[in-house]
Amino acid sequence: MKKQLLDFSKLTESDIYQLIEKAKAFSTATKPIFKFNNTAALLFYENSTRTKISFELALKRLTIPYVDLNINTSSEKKGETTLDTLLTLGAMQVDTFIIRHKDDNLIFDLADKLCDKFHFINAGSGMRAHPTQALLDVFTIFDSKKSLTDLSIAIIGDLKHSRVVASLLQAFKLCSIGDIRLCAPADLAVSKPTIGSYTADLKEALQDADVIITLRVQKERLQQGESINLKDYQAYYRLDKKMLAYAKPDAIIMHPGPINRDIEITSEVAYGPQSMILKQVENGVYMRQAILEWLYGTQL
Ligand code: NCD
Question: Is the pLDDT at 300 greater than 50, yes or no?
Fold first, then answer.
């Protein structure tokens, strides 16, 4: 059985702390400390800037060879299935698949069928999971606050369509973070969150928060019958300087990106002194190096 990172269901709290420690080590390491006998393939069926490039940089920094399949010019456009794509690349000794797909379950089904042959890393599956983003976020919080316990964390925005939130809540639950405030207009709330308390009131969510995670309004994921009034959203949920004053003075601001400037967050706050948004991007490379090493590295 090959190792996989699909969501947090097979991870423990100690795995998360181990990955944080490894990511921290990669943030200061200048040369590779592990050796790999693997070849990876990036299969991105959905748009991506930071996740895809950070995986590429992580692979390059670890000197792991990889291919980046251009889905639009691949044989899938001639009717080949994704399963057959994987078997084809596998015949060329690719043994690790890093996949982003709009389908919630595709990577889970593929990993189930091919778990003896290939490693799988979920780079975002539908609205279901985005574990590597959640891990880099937890790393960023830990690195800045030096602990995960006793924090008040506000998560604001389109909770309903966010795979980042789905994974973050799983990670926060494993790490026993008690005070999670989930804030969204009622029609963008999570129906039954496994952790945290819901409020529609932004001020209440922000009151004395240590960490504020804002989210993109995911217009492309609105389903039939769903709509969003951006003017109302901006009026009641946008994080600006005035709203930020409700949080603790040393609160950090995060966003998985990409941001919709001035819709969910003002430019001033997104690039202000409390913002960790670009730090998250930087940490994404270290965390993805850590994940690859955790999956199959052997110490040199
Ligand atoms: C997120 C995603 O794709 O789920 N972005 C990311 O990976 N950094 C969030 C989003 O698209 O809003």
Answer: no
CA of 255 to the centre of ligand 1 (A): 9
Residues in the ligand 1 pocket, defined by CB under 6 Å: 50-51, 124, 130, 133, 163-164, 216, 218, 256-257
Ligand 1: nearest atom to the Cα of 124: 4
| pLDDT for res 6 | 97
Whether pTM > 0.85 for this model: the answer is yes
User: Which residues in 2-24 are b (16+ Cβ under 10 Å) and which e?
Assistant: eebbbbbeebeeeebeebbebbb
CA 164 to ligand 1 centroid distance, Å:
7
Cα 83 to Cα 106: distance, rounded to the nearest angstrom: 10
Ligand 1 geometric centre to CA of 193 (Å): 20
Q: What is the pLDDT of residues 190-206, one digit of tens each?
A: 888 889 999 999 999 99
Tens digit of each residue's pLDDT (9 = 90 or more) over 86-141: 999 999 999 999 999 999 999 999 999 999 999 999 999 999 999 999 999 999 99
> Separation of 222 CA from ligand 1 center, angstroms?
15
- Residue 220: pLDDT band by 50, 70, 90 thresholds? confident
